[in-house]
UniProtKB/TrEMBL annotation:
Coiled coil, from the record: 441-468
Keyword Amino-acid biosynthesis: no
Gene Ontology MF, one: DNA strand exchange activity
Region Disordered: start-end pairs: 576-600
Signal peptide (from-to): none
Entries under SMART domains matching the protein: Resolvase
Domain Recombinase per the UniProt entry, residue ranges: 184-301
Protein name: DNA invertase Pin-like site-specific DNA recombinase
Keyword DNA-binding carried by entry: yes
Top-rank lineage group of the source organism: Bacteria
């Protein structure tokens, strides 16, 4: 039975979770319908006054556990196990939205959630309160539902696999397109027959001819951009602005030009191997092999993989204000290189680079050709944002939090048992007034109080393990992270810079740079706005629409504002994770190789 009075009197963070397995359902209203019915249930229960968070997984199978391994629910589960949810209500349409992997996996998941402060509710009447053991009736009910869902999932998976096998054999025999995702020079007719787009075929021939003559992918891309050749779009409505060298590289390495098709099953190569002569052949085999050999030689001479130092913390985040494309990082002088200024010799303490509009740099149609000195820009952004980006959770000892959560759950249960025993003994004393009964009752009460003190001490330890400190203390430990951003230990440097780059994205919504080298940094969808000039000087920052004159004042005020608006730094982090997932279609482009910085 659900205790509705207790449910309505408790202030929860309500998490609504919706999921579907088949990617084709994106065209439907499955998620909208699930969220709609859950929202109505929240209103019916009188819980609409509490904070709400929505999590969704599109095309993630619960039968294979993809939503937990690589989906948004997996992120939420990690947060729970790290002790970030102490009073949360997770609502789903049915139990099979959480798992279709059988009763053991489902029960393990439910126990993990409830032991770590999350209550679980389904719209068909199931409720698993946090901190309470799952009853025998609930075990039986959930097991039956879980096994039924697993059997349905297995049948669905078998039918889907069987249908795809039939389609593959038919497509292979008739040399027809298996899906509409074919090489960009192929046109799929209504009957799935394939013909070659002759205009694009000619451009592929030119790519290979230029590559065979020794031109690299970057040079080919620049040539096409200068000639105004329109780049090819993989999907309608997502036309790129310029030819990227990565696109040229993929085409030059694509064996589909030789007619080969490499089918995959669950993301892995099909056991049958590639289908030869499936596509029309448009490039001679000897030309393809020469181009591949030339590319391998250039890669060997260049020195292999890109730097592991993560030089640009704002990759795919900073954009050109004029055309909207990403800013490319151009390398300059390395750390340790000497230079002369005013008759004196100095050396660069950190690697020098600059940011420039990728479209303008590659000869595309954009007038913003300004180069922004990277180091001064990075310093300015981190001065104003890093204290928000690195929240308490960034410094938490998550294993210790998880251990204490388990310990606290057990001790709280012991407190309840001891309290109930003491109350029963006092009731017995009231009836008998026996001195011995009073002594036993007092001992039981003292035991319960001692256990309660122990729980309070454990909770204080958990707060410390979660990294909770004052605003001033937080700024001090953030300064410690800043000090190691350019440590000489490259492995440690990469770890720290990746952590900082990910954290910055948790609070910075957008960065744009105009032709005057002025950058506008938007924090948490308008919580704060910062403008930085070309020399890295922070113009008057704005917080909640009001100017803030001093940096320290801004930092502490931003921390206070985050807490006051029920959007703690952890909440900002969660919202940003959802935003990043929903915008995952936005491609993260690699940094460019070399360019001299025009700024210091």
């Amino acid at each position: 039975m659900i205790d509705y009075a207790k449910l309505q009197s408790t202030t929860y963070l309500i998490v609504l979770y919706a999921r579907f397995s088949d990617g084709s359902q994106k065209r439907g209203t499955s998620l909208e319908r699930q969220f709609d019915v859950m929202t109505k249930e929240v209103e019916r229960l009188g819980l609409s006054h509490v904070r709400e968070r929505r999590i969704k997984d599109e095309g993630k199978s619960a039968y294979h556990g993809h939503h937990r391994a690589s989906g948004n629910f997996g992120e939420f589960e990690s947060e729970v196990m790290a002790g970030e949810h102490s009073n949360t209500l997770l609502m789903v349409e049915r139990l099979d939205r959480l798992s279709r992997q059988g009763h053991e996996a489902t029960l393990d998941l439910l126990r993990a959630l409830t032991r770590n402060g999350v209550s679980v509710m389904t719209l068909d009447g199931d409720f698993y309160p946090a901190g309470e053991p799952i009853t025998l009736v609930q075990v039986i009910t959930s097991s039956v539902k879980a096994e039924t869902a697993k059997e349905e999932g297995a049948k669905r998976a078998y039918r889907t696999a069987d249908n795809w096998n039939r389609l593959r054999h038919k497509a292979k025999g008739e040399k027809k397109a298996l899906t509409k995702l074919v090489p960009p020079w192929i046109i799929v007719l209504p009957n799935r027959s394939m013909i070659v787009d002759r205009v694009r075929e000619a451009l592929v021939h030119r790519m290979f001819a230029l590559a065979d003559a020794g031109m690299g992918a970057r040079g080919i891309a620049n040539t096409f951009n200068k000639e105004g050749i329109k780049p090819w779009a993989r999907f309608k409505g997502r036309e790129p602005k310029i030819w990227e060298h990565t696109k040229i590289t993929r085409i030059l390495a694509n064996r589909a030009v030789l007619g080969e098709f490499h089918p995959k099953v669950d993301g892995k190569p099909c056991p049958d191997g590639p289908w030869l002569d499936h596509y029309p052949v448009i490039v001679a085999a000897d030309l393809f092999e020469r181009v591949r050999q030339n590319a391998n030689v250039r890669e060997a001479v260049k020195g292999g993989a890109k730097s592991a130092e993560v030089p640009n913390l704002f990759s795919a985040l900073a954009r050109c204000e004029c055309c909207g494309s990403n800013l490319a990082y151009q390398k300059g002088r390395k750390a340790g290189v000497f230079y002369t200024k005013g008759g004196k010799t100095y050396s660069y303490k950190r690697p020098v680079g600059s940011l420039v509009c990728r479209v303008a740099y590659n000869g595309g149609d954009c007038s913003n050709r300004a180069y922004v000195a990277y180091l001064t820009f990075e310093d300015a952004v981190l001065d104003m944002c890093l204290h928000l980006a690195l929240d308490d959770g960034s410094f938490a000892r998550k294993d210790e939090v998880a251990r204490l959560n388990t310990l606290i759950a057990g001790r709280e249960r012991a407190v309840n048992v001891a309290t109930e025993r003491a109350q029963a003994l006092w009731r017995a004393f009231a009836q008998t007034a026996s001195p011995m009964a009073m002594g036993v009752a007092q001992e039981a009460e003292a035991e319960a109080e001692e256990l309660a003190k122990n729980v309070k001490a454990l909770k204080r330890q958990r707060e410390a393990a979660r990294g909770r400190v004052s605003g001033a203390e937080h700024l001090a430990r953030v300064a410690g992270i800043r000090a190691n951003l350019y440590t000489k230990n490259l492995k440690e440097r990469r770890q720290i810079r990746v952590k900082v780059a990910q954290s910055i994205r948790s609070v910075v919504t957008d960065i744009t740079v105009n032709a005057d080298k002025v950058a506008t940094v938007v924090i948490a969808n308008g919580l704060g706005i910062i403008r930085i000039d070309g020399k890295g000087r922070v113009l008057t920052p704005v917080l909640h629409g009001q100017p803030v004159l001093h940096q320290k004042e801004y930092q502490l005020a931003a921390l206070d504002a985050a807490d006051q608006m029920h959007a703690t730094r952890t909440d900002i982090l969660r919202r940003a994770r959802r935003r990043t997932t929903e915008n995952s279609g936005r491609k993260q482009l690699p940094d460019s190789e070399t360019h001299e910085s025009l700024g210091m």
